[in-house]
Specification:
Distance between the termini: 60 Å
Structural class: alpha/beta
Strand content: 5-15%
Order of helices and strands: HHEHHHEHEHEHEHEEHEHHHEEHEEH
Shape: globular
Strand order of the largest sheet: 2-8-7-6-5-3-4
Number of strands: 12
Helix content: 40-55%
């Protein structure tokens, strides 16, 4: 008998087979896990548990009417229903955007490194990634470099994660306006990933409103603590949103998920806002504590729900990550990315939870 796995492989795409299967590592127990950029707050679980008890049975037993859900969620996303499409998580939205737009251009201008889902989806579809690299010796991306890339590249898609998903830094309003204008002039589509927007502490969306060549990605995973329910969205000009709806991804969003997001933002907004403020305060407190340790650590300015710290040397970053793990704290490293290997990323949390982190940092000796 012929082995099915062998006989069926003639229609496998070798490019796809060669990619590492995506997945998350098991969740450690008994540690403070600051490696996943989830919303961490002692008030969050009781809040979510209370709302889960109130989920109506019809949100589970009946098919959702997605036009109605989108109309309601548009208030939360601060746009019109015609400008909004919902997805089962921002990762799914990224894949559809690559399908919908970058496949046509055959290329993608992408910050390198950035959130890995973009490169993965581009590789999955055989799309050329044109890297927008940080300035040599700097941990920042200069808008002028993206402008130059757009000026010499045929119409394509430019992706900007802002705040950046690894550094936490924002480009700023002036730089974003310049990117939007140049993209419009040269016929590019600007994809603005704003999944950490809620942790900037102020409304900075105004500069990107009104541009038909911009689509914005958002997520309730980090901003509302709904990582397990998977709800993302895309905001853009009605013509682009209408086009994205051909992928029918709203049909993969459960009614219970949408119900939770709506209730959080309508009925428990003050509590949710207070949680976010505590996260921002914790991030800034941790940055101050790290800077004051006199160990040569440099916290980067962050507008996200995490703090990235430059430890100085890649070897020290590896040793510090191991030291923190031995002290019950898990953090994310960027050792696989050239130029970023000296960085460690700490998910932000309320100050009360971060004393354990500072205590562990205090006892670290890079010379060991």
């Amino acid at each position: 008998m012929t082995d099915f796995a062998t006989s069926a492989q003639w229609y496998f795409d070798p490019r796809v087979s060669s990619l590492a299967a995506p997945g998350r590592r098991p969740r450690p127990r008994g540690v403070l896990d600051l490696s996943r950029n989830e919303l961490i707050h002692p008030a969050l679980d009781p809040l979510i548990a209370t709302l889960l008890k109130e989920v109506p049975s019809t949100a589970v037993t009946k098919y959702p009417i997605y036009s109605e859900l989108i109309t309601e969620l548009a208030d939360v996303a601060d746009c019109s229903p015609e400008e909004l499409e919902i997805f089962p998580g921002s990762d799914d939205a990224i894949g559809v955007i690559i399908d919908a737009f970058a496949v046509q251009s055959g290329s993608l201008i992408l910050q390198d490194p950035t959130y890995p889902a973009y490169r993965y989806h581009a590789q999955l579809r055989g799309i050329d990634v044109l890297p927008w690299l940080p300035r040599p010796g700097e941990l920042s991306f200069a808008a002028v470099d993206a402008v130059r890339a757009m000026e010499r590249t045929p119409s394509t898609v430019l992706v900007v994660t802002d705040p950046h998903g690894m550094l936490g830094r924002s480009l700023g309003d002036e730089a974003m306006m310049a990117l939007a204008a140049v993209a419009d002039l040269h016929g590019h589509l600007l994809v603005l990933d704003q999944c950490y927007q809620a942790f900037r502490g102020e409304d900075r969306l105004q500069p990107v409103r009104g541009w038909d060549n911009i689509v914005r990605i958002g997520s309730f995973s980090q901003s509302a603590g709904l990582a397990g329910m998977r709800l993302g969205y895309v905001i853009g000009a009605p013509s682009k949103i209408d086009y994205l709806r051909r992928w029918r991804r709203a049909a993969a969003v459960s009614g219970a998920t949408a119900w939770m997001a709506l209730k959080l933002h309508r009925n428990r907004k003050k509590e949710l806002d207070a949680i976010r403020e505590d996260i921002i305060d914790g991030r800034e407190w941790l940055a101050g504590q790290v800077a004051g340790l006199e160990k040569g650590f440099s916290p980067l300015a962050s507008d996200a729900n995490f703090l990235t710290v430059d430890v100085g040397e890649p070897d020290d970053a590896r040793r510090l990550k191991d030291h923190l793990a031995r002290n019950g704290v898990m953090v994310r490293s960027h050792e696989d990315h050239t130029g970023f290997a000296s960085l460690l990323q700490f998910t932000a949390a309320p100050v009360s939870l971060l004393h354990q982190v500072v205590a562990a940092l205090t006892t670290f000796d890079a010379a060991q």
